[in-house]
Amino acid sequence: MSQQLTLTRIETLRVLSCMGIDLPAHTKLPDDALEKRLRQALNASQVLLTITSSPVLDILSFSRWPSNKKQTVFDAIGRASMAEYGAIMAKRAMGLSTVDPLRVDPFDDVRQTVMHLAKNWDEGYKVLLVTDPQQSEAEKVPINIRYLEVRMINEHTPLIVLLYGPVASSHSAHREAASMWLEEKLDDIPRAADGSVPMPHIKASFEEQKLLSKLLSQNAKYVPAEYDHQVKRTQAEPASLYKTTFILPLNPLSFEDIGKLNLDTGCVVCGERVSSRCSQCQSVSYCGQACQRLDWSSHKRTCRSLKGGTWFTIPLSGSPEGSQPGKSASVLTWNRFSVPRKALDVKNVQHIDPEKTFPNIHADKVFLIKIQLSAPINPERSMMIYDRQRSFEAYWLLDAETKELFEKFVIEMQGPRGGYAGLKMYRWARRTGDKELSVCLDRAPQESIPW
Ligand SMILES: [Zn+2]
Ligand SMILES: [Zn+2]
């Protein structure tokens, strides 16, 4: 079977989902619209559009990364969100490996490969192979990489410039070009004592290889023609098969980015302009009956649990002052950091000013929230509210204006649809404003909730 380094539709959806952008599995969004969303997501992850506003990245305008060992490219290139940072610290404290297993999340796999690329550069390697060890020799579609140089966007942001390929159109042409390149490079690599040639390589799943290939190819378009012309190519690296490209640190997407990429999805099935909502629950929008029918099997569970429910609008605010020692009144968000993994510390935690709005990653979609009542001994009565992704963590503070509604929520929590010792409940909600939420109070979600 011929193997191509191109993400299939299902794989593209999976990558988007791993990046936090959830589209229905049976979406009819055209391939080019899906591809565009992935391109935007990868650009957002690289913060590329804040580095260059033009369609080219002027590589030569950045100075070279200093070759002293004080700050390695590896140390600078890692990025983590607050949630990931917490997980890394917990693993470290338990003495566990902080490297996640391959083949779980292709986006995470590529982020780890970027760190490997940096490490290999620091160790002085000039070339590298990215292959899937689970594929047979005949199936393998290696990505060959030769380092050109590393430049410095700023002291935390290296720019690794590479030549990669082959970008052949058929599997056989790819394999032929790849092995020619390999033969050429093997001559330059010192032989080990047993006569073998230790070719540096990175293990990748096939899906990850495809995503990496996508990233390399979309970044190649940002390389200025003048830069490309001065790259010295060997015989096995013709411009038709090997492209000049670059790698930047890959950040987990910020909630603002996810919010933007989840916006304007139109009909939940096909992305076309919407004309109606589900009349049973009002929670999803469609372009017409055909799409609504197609979506029923996945929507019915939510729909049945919402049908006939009563929605109330509640205010959101920052945490009650003084109720959490050491925390200010601001809201902690688990967000993207433009600092390396190593340099992360509490100072880098982003706070949201309570006067500001809460990020909205859900657009106008219905999502699950967890509502937790403050402990009865706490003199200040409040409810803490957050979503699965913890894209926001907000409070509803008991005040004269909403006292009656607040009590209604407490009664619901302590009633038969509540549970959890009457101190918390899960409910469906929808954002109705920057600092408010509409909650379906008298319907408990039917699915099991793992958070
Ligand atoms: Zn539709
Ligand atoms: Zn419905």
UniProtKB/TrEMBL annotation:
The keyword Zinc applies. GO terms for molecular function: zinc ion binding. InterPro entries: Znf_MYND. It comes from the Eukaryota. Residues 267-303 form the MYND-type domain. SUPFAM superfamilies: HIT/MYND zinc finger-like. Keywords: Metal-binding, Zinc, Zinc-finger. Transmembrane segments: none annotated. Signal peptide: none annotated. This is MYND-type domain-containing protein. It comes from Steccherinum ochraceum.
